[in-house]
Amino acid sequence: MANINLFQPASLADFLISDAVSKQTIERIVNGQLPFPMSKQAICLWGVNGTGKTTLAKMLPDLIEASGNLMPTANANSMWQSQHYYQVTSCGLGNNSVSLLQDLHKRSQSVVHTSPKGYYYEILDEVDLLTPATQASLKALISNATETIFIMTTNFPEKLERGLKDRAHMIEMNQPKPADMEQMGRHFLRLMGLTGNEVNAALLQEIAVASQGSMREYCSAIVTIGVDLGGTI
Question: What CATH number should be reported for the domain holding residue 35?
């Protein structure tokens, strides 16, 4: 039976973050070297389709909670502590902006289902699809909901309200360098029981360029090659 989770990222190191400054920022937050949340209460992952923004967004609550520098709130280790301390909202799935914002306000005022450090995490996927008025209200909520951490994703950062971007660490996740994707391709081949050296660098980098930054497209192409070479999943 195929292992559908074989290629799923298990840590921050499994993501290819294209921009060096963004890579350093998110690593410092996760490693506890950059105090968070402080002046910025949110993280926004932005870039082209398929680079792993939503996947990373869903992993960040656990990664941030493990940070040694995350300041605990008054609700830390309380009776309300829960394993379900984050909510994923797809802003593009026909969500009404008014009701979405009302739900965010309601959850920000509740102490139920807090993390070990006393926070609740709101993951807003494709946040650029919110109306300008809703984005402005979200900006105010981020400033005032001090026990809620907001993690957002977008393919179009230019569509975000300026104040919303100012309140977030903007993490660029665009097309990685072909050489970096080549190494990831070899990693995928090794996961399939191969040596990783069966395919030459030129072909792996050619596939990387053709994928236009989409790790989904790249992984699919590498898996096809791996199966043809006798690899298993």
Answer: 3.40.50.300
